[in-house]
Write a structure and sequence with these properties.
The structure is a single chain. This protein is mainly alpha-helical. The chain has 7 helices and 4 strands. A hairpin with a 2-residue loop joins strand 1 and strand 2 (about 5). Helix 2 (about 25-40) runs parallel beside helix 5 (about 100-130), helix 3 (about 40-50) packs antiparallel against helix 4 and helix 4 runs antiparallel to helix 7. The longest helix is centred in the last third of the chain and has 32 residues, at about 130-160.
Length: about 190
């Protein structure tokens, strides 16, 4: 069935597109930076839980495929924003000497979240080991993990305030949403 020469999307695809229309660019950055690394960590979390190898492989494949899908979709939704290299601020006055494009900055934030998640997973492993060294090591790793997990929220806020203040107010256009989320039919063509 076609409407104005374009194929009509299935109900699930249309629901996802409707959800994306309610998001601002700030929401998309947050989901891209946090959701993808958290899903990717399904595999390492299964290792810590001591699941059998088959379960570990299935968790890893599921986590990787879902995180890659969300990562790519998030980057595709942000493609219309300016992509020139910008300075990274770690506080209102302190900046790093490197300049990154928006895509590179998102990669940086995702890696920081993933390292924070991995630190949390290792902290659990140390806690389970027991003893004073295990408890102390677990607390240190947990503190590092929490700091790294929440650091991207601060860096993202500073990035938006300095370079893209409109990100908190507007979202992707209909054309960008349709190109970023083509639907399940496109996988089978």
């Amino acid at each position: 069935m076609e409407y104005n020469g374009t194929p009509r999307p299935d109900a699930f695809t249309q629901s996802c597109r409707d959800l994306l229309r309610t998001c601002t660019y700030e929401d998309i950055v947050a989901c891209t930076c946090y959701t993808a690394p958290m899903l990717f960590m399904l595999g390492p979390a299964a290792v810590v839980a001591g699941h059998p190898v088959v379960s570990l492989v299935l968790h890893s494949l599921l986590g990787f495929s879902l995180s890659w899908m969300l990562h790519r979709m998030g980057h595709r939704l942000l493609v219309r924003l300016p992509q020139e290299p910008r300075t990274i601020f770690v506080s209102r006055s302190l900046r790093l000497p490197a300049k990154l494009t928006l895509g590179q900055f998102l990669w940086l934030l995702e890696i920081v979240v993933a390292v924070g998640m991995f630190s949390g997973i290792l902290a659990k492993r140390y806690f389970l080991a027991g003893g004073t060294a295990g408890l102390l090591g677990g607390l240190v790793l947990l503190a590092i993990g929490l700091a790294l997990f929440f650091l991207p929220a601060r860096l993202g806020r500073l990035w938006m305030e300095r370079h893209y203040p409109v990100m908190t107010l507007v979202g992707p256009t209909e054309d960008v949403i349709n190109k970023s989320f083509p639907g399940f039919g496109s996988f089978f063509k």
